[in-house]
Amino acid sequence: MNTSRLLPSLWASFDRLHGEMDRLLEGWGSDLSLVGAFPLVNVRENADAFFVEAEVPGLTQENLQISVTHRNQVTLQGERHTNDNGSGRWHRRERGFGRFQRVLQLPAPIDADKVEAKLENGLLQLRLPKAEEARPRRIAVKAAE
After folding, report:
1. For 28-48, what is each residue's pLDDT tens digit?
2. CATH class of 37-82+98-134
3. Would you kindly state where each structural domain of the chain is located, as residue ranges?
4. Residue 114: which residues within 8 A CB-CB, separation 6 or more?
5. 1-11 pLDDT, tens per residue?
6. Which of 16, 41, 57, 132 has the most CB atoms at less than 10 Å from its CB?
7. CA distances from 115 to 71, 81, 100, 107 (A)
8. For the CA atoms of 128, 132, 135, 138, what is the dihedral angle to 10 degrees?
9. Residue range 98-133, pLDDT digits in tens
10. How crowded is the C-beta side of 74, counted as CA atoms within 13 Å?
11. Closest residue by Cα to residue 51 from 110, 122, 139
């Protein structure tokens, strides 16, 4: 078997496969880059507000800062400290520590003056009311006269 003719064909197939995988994963955007993202978040909405839940075990109110920018971006930042006192030997170290920042882009503007935040048992809960112009309006239908 002549491998010199087979190799270019094989590489061309790999290139096509790579291009197809890039095309398929293109719509996933930042979701694939979330490996190791901190804090983990859930974001949902109803007609009036967005709700964010972020897992922040071991953090206190003093370790967290929340800000709203560009009317639709929420930034969670802070610092998670380590319990390393320098003695002993680590066998496994999976929990990260240090400064972090997570920026969430919401699909509609929010009213930053009415944002509510609550931290309880390592769960940060945010209520982010939508700006008035982003809320659905009910239009009354009048009967023809």
Report:
1. 544 444 446 789 999 999 999
2. mainly beta
3. 37-82+98-134
4. 129
5. 555 555 666 67
6. 41
7. 12, 27, 21, 16
8. 150
9. 899 999 999 999 999 999 999 999 999 999 999 988
10. 29
11. 110
